[in-house]
Amino acid sequence: MDLLGIHHLSAMTADAKGNVDFYTKILGMRMVKKTVNQDDPSVYHLFYGDEIGHPGTELTFFEIPRAGQNHNGNQSISTTSLRVPNDEALEYWEQRLTEHDVEHEGIVEQYGRKVLPFKDFENQRLILVSDEQNRGVAGGTPWNKSAADPKYGIIGLGPIHLTIPNLEPTEAILTKLMGFRRAGEYQHHSTGKEVIVFETGEGGTGAELHIHVRTDLPPERLGRGGVHHVAFRVENEEKIREYLEQLNEIGIGNSGFVDRFYFRSVYFREPNGILFELATDGPGFDTDEDAEHLGESLALPPFLEPRREEIEGKLKPID
Fold first, then answer.
1. Cβ contacts of 68-72, under 8 Å, gap ≥ 24
2. Number of structural domains, the chain?
3. Closest CA to 155 of 232, 85, 236
4. What is the reported pTM?
5. Per-residue confidence of the chain (319 residues) as pLDDT tens digits?
6. Is 1 a member of any domain?
7. Domain that includes residue 60, residue range
8. Would you give the distance in Å from CA 208 to the centre of its chain?
9. What's the CATH code of the domain at 293?
10. Separate counts of helices (H) and strands (E) for the chain
11. Is 11 within a domain?
12. Other CB atoms within 10 Å distance of the CB of residue 279
């Protein structure tokens, strides 16, 4: 597979209003789509990104209002990185997070880059990573109406961290099927354990998986503050269908072709149980809304539009 990098990542929240406040008012991301979980339209699915939610910039959240706290552990997507333009931006963000009483670890080094680990209000594990040394996949463009200084704004998803007990079968899927290559390793600043880096496409911060191999942790129990799945960029629908054929040929269980309206997808689990998605770069979030007004009202894909009144009646409004 000739994957282009990270497409989006979908996490869990129990508080849609608090989630919007944190990611738009503190982190300054743009809510590019306010819609519903297409598999359970009684709950929100919120998309944040750069100015128009370019592929590779999208951080999304499913709202599960009564979800318990995530129990961190193995077989998980354990940390999500968000890219900022340079090292100077991290200094801005360290001060901003402190001013907003956001828990963080200060600026440290990770794989030759400066990073700033922190947590959101539900203990979602996040890292701001400097793109100063990036020579790979380009970042996006911060929204010029951001609550944070656009000069230092978030420009996309960075390396996604996986924690697994057994590297060999996951490495085989990544390298032999998905086209990733082993790029290096480093010692984690907190655990002291080795982290193995894989990259795809042009490489760089927008195309990396960082894998922590841990045999001393119980399996993660997903809840608010946890991550549901990570998606990888595919050029178009034709490629998605080719990859689906490959998955079927080698006997990997999958979702089949899925039309999410804003992109086309296929889902499957890698050998350690983590949910992967392949998603097309288009059509995009301005398919059904003007680019100037993305995320301002509830957007529904065509197959859910006839149920709008019912769906809106079950959702708690978000300002």
1. 68/223, 68/224, 69/122, 69/123, 69/223, 69/224, 69/225, 70/12, 70/122, 70/123, 70/220, 70/221, 70/222, 70/223, 70/224, 70/225, 70/226, 71/218, 71/220, 71/221, 71/223, 72/125, 72/220, 72/226
2. 1
3. 85
4. 0.97
5. 789 999 999 999 999 999 999 999 999 999 999 999 999 999 999 999 999 999 999 999 999 999 999 999 999 999 999 999 999 999 999 999 999 999 999 999 999 999 999 999 999 999 999 999 999 999 999 999 999 999 999 999 999 999 999 999 999 999 999 999 999 999 999 999 999 999 999 999 999 999 999 999 999 999 999 999 999 999 999 999 999 999 999 999 999 999 999 999 999 999 999 999 999 999 999 999 999 999 999 999 999 999 999 999 999 999 7
6. no
7. 6-314
8. 12
9. 3.10.180.10
10. 5, 16
11. yes
12. 22
User: Looking at the domain assignment, is residue 319 inside a domain?
Assistant: no
Element (H, E) at 117: strand 113-119
Cβ neighbour number for residue 316 with a 10 Å cutoff: 10
Largest Cα span, the chain: 54
Whose structure tokens read 């999208």? 58
Q: Tell me whether the omega of the peptide bond preceding residue 302 falls within 30 degrees of 0, making it cis.
A: no
Alpha helices in the chain (DSSP H): 16-20, 87-99, 167-172, 237-249, 308-314
The two tokens of residue 155 are 């420009």
